[in-house]
Amino acid sequence: MLKSYNTAFKLVRHMATSASKSPKLTDVFIVGGGPAGLGLATGIKTSSKLKHLNTVLVDGGDIKGKVAPFYDNPPDFYTNRVVSVTHPTREFIEDKLGATLRKDRIMSYDGICVTDGVSKGLIDMERPGMAWMVEILNVQSSLLNRINQLKPSGFNLLDKTKVVDIKYSDPEDASSWILVSLDNGETYKTRLLIGADGFNSRVKTFSGILSQGWFYNKSAVVATMKLDMEPLKIRGWQRFLPTGPIAHLPLPGDNATLVWSTTNELAKLLTSIPVEQFTELVNAAFVLEDVDMKYYYNQLMNGKMTTTELKEDVQFRTNQILASLSDESMADDIYPPPITDVLDHTRAKFPLKLFHADTYCQERIALLGDAAHATHPLAGQGLNMGLCDTDALVRALESATDRGLDVGSLFALEPFWSERYPINCKLLSLADNCHKIYSNTFPPIVGMRTLGANIINQIGPIKDYISGTLSYSGKY
Amino acid sequence: MNRMQCLKSIKVRRSPWILTRFKSTDASASEVEHFRNLAPTWWDTHGNQRILHLMNLARLDFIQRNIRNTIKIENSDIYVPGFNYKKFLPKDISTAVQEEFDNEIEKILISRKLKVLDVGCGGGILAESMGRLPYVQHVTGVDLTKDCIEVAKLHAKKDPALKGKLTYELKAVEDVEPNEGYDIVTCFEMLEHVDSPSSILSHSWRKLKPNGILFISTINKDLISWFTTIFMGEYVLKIVPVGTHHLNKYVNSKDIIKWFQSTVPNKYQVMDVKGTMYLPFKAWVEHNCSDVGNYFLAIKKLPK
Ligand SMILES: Cc1cc2nc3c(=O)[nH]c(=O)nc-3n(C[C@H](O)[C@H](O)[C@H](O)COP(=O)(O)OP(=O)(O)OC[C@H]3O[C@@H](n4cnc5c(N)ncnc54)[C@H](O)[C@@H]3O)c2cc1C
Questions:
Q1: Which spans of this chain does the record mark as coiled coil (chain A) (predicted)?
Q2: What is the pLDDT tens value at each position of chain B, 304 positions in all?
Q3: Of B45, B134, B160, the CB nearest to A411
């Protein structure tokens, strides 16, 4: 029984490979169904100038089964990849692409309170409607929902499918159309290949485009948190600890999301201790002194402290600090609302890095989103940069179409990269290095580099970044 | 000024040593040679033809605008936006209005299936762009430099979307068939390279259908032109190959219009005339001084 099934399977495989001999022609081939890739597909199929372009999108993940259903059937908890969506990004998603985010799952917030874990400095930025906290799944599924509504012709979404090979149709000619082979046996020949395939972009590797940057030797721990009650003022909280910033950002109701950047070693500890201990540490990190935190890390690492002991100690020291305030009601203005719980399965960590591709395009290839740049979540710009890139690419393709250009030619793609590169450079705090990159004397940094908290200074005056950058993605 | 005088005023003195001429619209032998040398790099958008590729963007903007301006919307369901309407309507409504309006124009245009003749097509930069416009059914490109025609043919093969939409021929404009067979005739950056611009004009005009549009661009004969196109362009900034231009061949926009006045009076309408200039390292921009430097001209052939 098993054997005959196997033969049947092989036969199908065989047919699939023989079918691959004649590649299917397409205008745009998008690798990656993250926010950037889906945004571009929606942009092309929404634009009256571009919708004639045959478009294929592939993603290795289960987009139709796991991402799309979020829109009509979201889980009863908040997922852990939450981003701060800025005004230009929201305008692009809703006005230009015509997608509607699930309103019940986004949270508008009115500013951010930044404190310094060492010097007790505090910057309180009130800015009504500064930005929105949105789950990445909300963005992706809204875009998918919009594509479904459009019922576009000439569009094909292939999920659970991986790219296995990329090459030029004429190996001698780097401006020839590109052949993309998939693990389902199909091959496409495309006018334009889009790398929206995230940090480890296969398209970028094929293109040979180099990047500048480094790993921070640090990680971000993310999690969805429960508060003891719904806060009155809706704002974000960020505290700069010597190990990196910790951020507490609002979600609807009594929910909040955490992004805690710290050393790799501590990130490992934070994701492995019981969730009750983690909860205590989050509360402590926003109030207590660095020496206290160091003490807890040490004790927990060596297994010398029980959950109850930790809880009592944090409680005691917190009360001491609150008692020292001239007016106890001040606490609500300088400390975030305490959390009561963390959803254990939402606790995750990912390595921090800063990378910027030297260019985003060449003949027949454009890189979008994380494939072109990866950033520290501190500035909350990863997704915003990706979608602003997408916006610029859609506009470049529209103007190229008006002028009868080949939309896969570098000449057509250039305006996209020349618009976005300087802005992203600024956002990536690489502004100082830009001229070096431009003049091409900057050797690729391959080794690891630890910048510690210094990177924060490079990102520019904190206040500027909060008020302008964070809400407008560096556009204004 | 009578017709003869007018013709003379724009006719360029022929080099006496070119004795054997078999076509009135022939480009001079040295011009053919010059463009033959350029042929291999014609499509290098980052090489010495970059400025021409950039200019092509401005040409297309000029052409698209003028073609769209000839379309009248007769569908009474479509709201035709008036002047400044964006100020009075909410953003989403004004966007929707504009979109509906644009779509209607596009629909009408596509039904017209325009035929284009590109005179002096070179390596096909303009012809390909025109060929990709959804409302253009076919483009015929003619040129007298064999290598350019070959480059154009080869390049068009790279894009399957152009299949069947382009024909390139090594031919003088007077040999193009048929007369009154084209909705659009273009003479871009070519009058300044021929010995007898007036015969190019008259043959091109003949190929145009009634209501068709002749698009011309060339360079005024003035000091500014010499300074920008020859001195700066060829010698200082070196963005154009040396030997591309000859001031004595430049043609003034006023003279072209005078030629129409005296040759086909009452049968033409000047739709648009715009100066255009290159902002170094940026783009070509339009301006209203059409009698200095480079310019674009759109002239409509009125029905009999
Ligand atoms: C674990 C994690 C947590 C994050 N948390 C936050 C956060 O809390 N806040 C924040 O602002 N940012 C966060 N980010 C960053 C944010 O997710 C990205 O900036 C954003 O998703 C970038 O979108 P993108 O479309 O460019 O790429 P991605 O979202 O990375 O999408 C790339 C897609 O390409 C697909 N793909 C890759 N290779 C192939 C291939 N060969 N064949 C087929 N498909 C392929 C992948 O399956 C993936 O779906 C996080 C990133 C990660 C990895």
A1: none
A2: 343 333 333 333 333 333 333 455 556 677 777 777 777 788 989 887 888 999 999 999 999 999 999 888 777 777 766 667 777 777 778 778 888 888 888 889 999 999 999 999 999 999 999 999 999 999 999 999 999 999 999 999 999 999 999 999 999 999 999 999 999 999 998 888 887 888 899 999 999 999 999 999 988 877 676 666 776 677 666 777 777 777 777 788 888 899 999 899 999 999 999 998 888 767 888 888 887 788 999 999 999 7
A3: B45
A403 and B129 within 8 Å at the Cβ level: the answer is: yes
Q: How many CB atoms lie within 10 A of CB B280?
A: 10
CATH of domain B27-71+114-301: 3.40.50.150
CATH superfamily, domain at A2-102+137-210+358-432: FAD/NAD(P)-binding domain (3.50.50.60)
For chain B, give every domain's residue range.
Answer: 27-71+114-301
Instruction: Give the DSSP per-residue string, A365-390.
Output: EEE-GGGTEE--GGG--HHHHHHHHH
Domain positions in chain A: 2-102+137-210+358-432, 106-133+217-350+439-472
Nearest chain B Cα to A415, which residue?
A: B282
A191, A403, A409: residue with CB nearest B60:
A403
The one-letter amino acid code at A387 reads: L
What residue has token string 């003279």?
A: B255
> For chain B, where are the alpha helices, taking DSSP H only?
3-10, 29-38, 50-69, 85-88, 91-112, 125-132, 146-156, 197-207, 223-225, 253-263
Instruction: Report the separation in Å between the CA atom of A351 and the middle of ligand 1, taken as the mean of its atom positions.
Output: 13
For residue B300, give both structure tokens. 């409509």
Token pair belonging to B141: 């490109």
Question: pTM of the entire structure?
Answer: 0.86
Which residue from A57, A161, A197, A391 has its CB within 8 A of the most atoms of ligand 1, so it is best to mutate? A197
Q: Is B147 on the interface with A (CB under 8 A)?
A: no
Instruction: Tell me the C-alpha to C-alpha distance, in Å, between residue B3 and each of B7, B157, B256, B263.
Output: 6, 44, 12, 7
Read off the tokens for A458. 């490079």
Whether the CA torsion A91, A92, A93, A95 is positive or negative: it is positive
Q: Please confirm whether the linkage preceding B90 is cis (ω < 30° from 0).
A: no
Is the CB of A351 within 6 Å of ligand 1? no
Q: Residue A172: list chain B partners with CB under 8 A.
A: none
Fold adopted by A106-133+217-350+439-472? D-Amino Acid Oxidase; Chain A, domain 2 (3.30.9)
